[in-house]
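Quick sanity check, FAD-dependent monooxygenase:
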Amino acid sequence: MTHALIIGGGIGGAVTAMALKKAGVASTVYEAYPTGADDVGAFLSIMSNGLDGLRAIDAHQPVLDNSFPANCVEFVAGSGKQLGAVPIGGQAGVLGPRTIKRAALYRVLHDEVARRGIEIEHGKRFTGAVTTSRDRVVAYFSDGSRAEGDLLVGADGIYSTTRRVIAAAAPVPRYLGMTTVCGYAANSPATTPPGIYRMVYGRRAFFGYTTAPDGETWWFASIPSPERSRDELAATTSEQWRQRTVDLLTGDKAGTVDIVHATSQGIVGSSAYDIASTPVWHAGNMVLLGDAAHAASPSAGHGASMAIEDGVVLAQCLRDLPNTEQAFQKFEQLRRERVERLVVTSAKMTGRAIPGPVGRMIRDALLPMMLRKGPRNTSAWLTEYHIEWDTQVGLIGAADVA
Ligand SMILES: Cc1cc2nc3c(=O)[nH]c(=O)nc-3n(C[C@H](O)[C@H](O)[C@H](O)COP(=O)(O)OP(=O)(O)OC[C@H]3O[C@@H](n4cnc5c(N)ncnc54)[C@H](O)[C@@H]3O)c2cc1C
């Protein structure tokens, strides 16, 4: 049986392992951290298309059980003026978007991987790989160990080592000038009805929040800031994040400062990066997926869903095409246009999050009119993507899935 080495036990790695098993390919997952990635304090949304990808491999139920709905977004100006609302999912027959803590998502995916008899080795930091003369691949780890397989999948996220192993000149992530700060307020004075996200266009920060079924308010703030190293981010205390966020929200009249004040601890921050395009996705028997291949800024809330789609489509390609090279080519053909379009879309959203005074006036005048007319479903190309597991990949053209 073909055996894959999967580098990275994040969202894409775990999903790929399950999808490969369903496709008849064995795998082992190698994860650098003892439990999961380093930014586990945050939360994220899994969109309808991400849940559809999980459903294709029968892995959606544990995610549904540990998340809550995200059906609608309300927009509010920093002045407190209501700008309108837009639904973000819930079409008939489609699993609606969900909100989940990153740590919970990693846990349920890892539990599901283990339940299916797939091994995850923790504390294995991948450092490099070579292809042997027998067309096998050997992966090396920082603890001195190695592993051999028939192919290697780089699902090691935005700072991917695999990306550099596949192509030494691979692009590095581009900083987008924003830090995402995030926290959980147990006794927030401002809450939302179930399934609602309230997005506040503050004058100096973009703020979003939603209230979990237990009454806790989950919030994030996108704040403009100079680039900070991962060590600097990790060394920043919850209190320092609170102070920076409060400073930028002060003066807005949408209740956001009070939410941050109601957060006693555990406020974390991470920098917003993307990679516009990675020219080389595969070489020999190694391939990239998820953020390792195409990281988008967090603004569109779609990176996790894309990593899920990638894992399922890659497994279909390996199932249906006669050899690894053809499978990787088909995978890239099916995925590149879609994921790079997301990167562009999400970067534009990041750039528009905090406009100047004129941009604010135009937005506050136009947005309510646009939303009153009935929202154009401009994200249908993202959310209505559907994967039919049993469809033979070789029969699909790129145009059919764009
Ligand atoms: C603040 C923030 C908010 C976000 N919000 C959303 C959202 O709401 N919705 C959404 O869809 N997406 C969101 N995203 C994006 C989303 O988190 C990513 O797109 C998604 O996690 C990508 O999955 P992945 O498996 O490719 O990478 P990851 O989930 O990052 O997993 C990569 C894994 O590889 C491991 N790894 C790294 N290097 C090595 C190595 N050398 N050896 C072994 N293992 C290694 C890491 O520890 C990690 O576990 C957000 C991102 C951020 C930063």
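Posting the structure with no commentary besides this: The first strand starts at residue 3 and ends at 7.
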